[in-house]
Amino acid sequence: MKFPWMPAIAALLCAGSADAAPCSDLADPVYVSSGSVSQPVLRALSPVLAAGTGADHMTLVYVFTQTCDTLLRFTSGAALTGTGVTYAADGTATSCDVPEGTHADLGIGNLFAPSCVSVSPTVDPSVVSDAPYVVSPTVLVVPVASDQVAISAEEAYFVYGFGAAGMVMPWTDEHFIYRRTATAGTQVVIAQNINVPAARFLGVDGVSVQNLLTLVAAAPTPRAAVGFLSAADADAHRSAVRRLAFRAYGQQSFYWPDSTHASFDRRNVRDGHYQVWNYEHVYVPVAAPADGRARRLGDMLTGVRPLPTGDMTSVAIGLGFVPRCAMSVQRTADDDGTSLASYDPPAPCGCSYDASVPMGATTCHACTTVADCGGTGACRRGYCEAR
Q1: Domains plus CATH for the chain?
Q2: Residues near 287 by Cβ (< 8 Å), separated by ≥ 6?
Q3: What does DSSP say about strands 277-285 and 106-109: parallel, antiparallel, or unpaired?
Q4: What pTM did the predictor assign?
Q5: Which end of the chain is more exposed for a tag (fewer CB within 10 A), N or C?
Q6: pLDDT band at 357 (very low <50, low <70, confident <90, very high)
């Protein structure tokens, strides 16, 4: 599960765009203000939407913006700035200049909009519709050469809240404690699970996903290094970083997002044992036209509207996310598990999910029609589900 385009995209976003063409020259551009977690989704959907017809034809322009900054732009009416990135059918990334005065058509981030008010008090959640579309766990990581395998919420509280003064061995050197910024969704998620305000994290700002990954993996003192990434990003680099099992406040045991350290089944996320997860959200301005491209794209991401070809559930699974139809818990806020509740998806896909992930397997009965399911339940995505 390597994502070889990540360094190239990081270089594009950092290098500037002196020779880039204006993004406005593209056919039917849709400007998406998003953090890095959903970037692989935009890359995967770009050729699908470029081949669409009518209002489903779009050229996605990805403009990197951290979650709370995206919502702040929608609140203030601030225009996008800098460089956009588009993707060819083979995954090649190309930069373009965002014209002055251009506003985001749609945003993607990994927080419920109200969560950003704590770090950006002027954010107004009411200016956007906020719809979760997939589940994304966040994991604390160490270099693969480290001997550490687990961390508790209490330990992470002292590591990120007090640094060297927290005296949590072996993470006492703040030069090797890596973080993001207060407006990064992954940092807010970690903050809410360890009870340290996102704006008060100690340590070194990793600046970007790729850079933080490099800093952790190449730390000169592996045992002293720790950081955090989305589980999908960590999974793509298991040869470089190790995910730590996590014990939340009030829990007696440590859990990985998956049933084992080596699997990819997100079992402990899906049943509520691993609590450091959040939804990826689609933010559409409430003033967006009802059948405009922004709303159509949002509806495709959330499954309300089908993609021109393929389906969003398969895209999500292939990129390391959990579709909501495979979950048995849900949440209504970004918190330390307080809002977790049971969830009964209307069209479950847990059997298909189990069979589709790397190293996956399912005990569910395969089917082509409901008749193969003994007359009960439903045949969904090739397997007999409860309904």
Answers
A1: 5-133+278-330 (3.40.190.10), 135-277 (3.40.190.10), 346-385 (no CATH)
A2: none
A3: antiparallel
A4: 0.89
A5: C
A6: very high
Residue with tokens 């190790």: 242
Q: Residue 341 pairs with which residues in a beta bridge?
A: 330
pLDDT digits (tens, 9 = 90+) for 230-284: 999 999 999 999 999 999 999 999 999 999 999 999 999 999 999 999 999 999 9
What is the Cα–Cα distance from 205 to 221, expressed in whole angstroms?
Answer: 18
Three-state DSSP at 140 gives: strand
Label the pairing between strands 204-205 and 178-179. parallel
Measure Cα distances from 353 to 125, 303, 304 in Å.
32, 16, 19
Nearest to 364, CA basis, from 374, 356, 354, 269: 354
Q: Which amino acid is at 341?
A: A
Question: Among all chains, which residue has been given the structure tokens 């050469």?
Answer: 145
- Alpha-carbon Rg for the chain, nearest whole angstrom, is 21
Q: How far apart are CA 264 and CA 163, in angstroms?
A: 31
